[in-house]
């Protein structure tokens, strides 16, 4: 039952990331999605894959996205 709740949270995180206009929020939602997937791997008894997913999907990818967003120039709608 808990895995269904985590899957729903992961799907909602993906949908919210698609609908966001602020790119930093997208980076945060990507990290939440990575944490949900890491939890699912741990629940499915794949601790090595879960650890890799937790490091890459929860920490590295959102940080790289945030750094790329920070380095680029924003074009605001006026």
TrEMBL record:
<feature type="domain" description="MrpA C-terminal/MbhD">
    <location>
        <begin position="9"/>
        <end position="74"/>
    </location>
</feature>
<keyword id="KW-0812">Transmembrane</keyword>
<keyword id="KW-1003">Cell membrane</keyword>
<dbReference type="Pfam" id="PF13244">
    <property type="entry name" value="MbhD"/>
</dbReference>
<protein>
    <recommendedName>
        <fullName>MrpA C-terminal/MbhD domain-containing protein</fullName>
    </recommendedName>
</protein>
<keyword id="KW-1133">Transmembrane helix</keyword>
<keyword id="KW-0472">Membrane</keyword>
<dbReference type="GO" id="GO:0005886">
    <property type="term" value="C:plasma membrane"/>
</dbReference>
<feature type="transmembrane region" description="Helical">
    <location>
        <begin position="51"/>
        <end position="70"/>
    </location>
</feature>
<dbReference type="InterPro" id="IPR025383">
    <property type="entry name" value="MrpA_C/MbhD"/>
</dbReference>
<feature type="transmembrane region" description="Helical">
    <location>
        <begin position="26"/>
        <end position="45"/>
    </location>
</feature>
């Amino acid at each position: 039952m808990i895995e269904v709740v985590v899957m729903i949270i992961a799907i909602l995180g993906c949908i919210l990331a698609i609908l966001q206009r602020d790119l930093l929020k997208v980076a945060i939602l990507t990290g939440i999605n990575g944490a949900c997937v890491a939890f699912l791997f741990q629940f499915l008894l794949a601790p090595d894959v879960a650890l890799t997913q937790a490091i890459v999907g929860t920490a590295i990818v959102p940080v790289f996205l945030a750094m790329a967003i920070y380095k680029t120039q924003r074009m605001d709608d006026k």
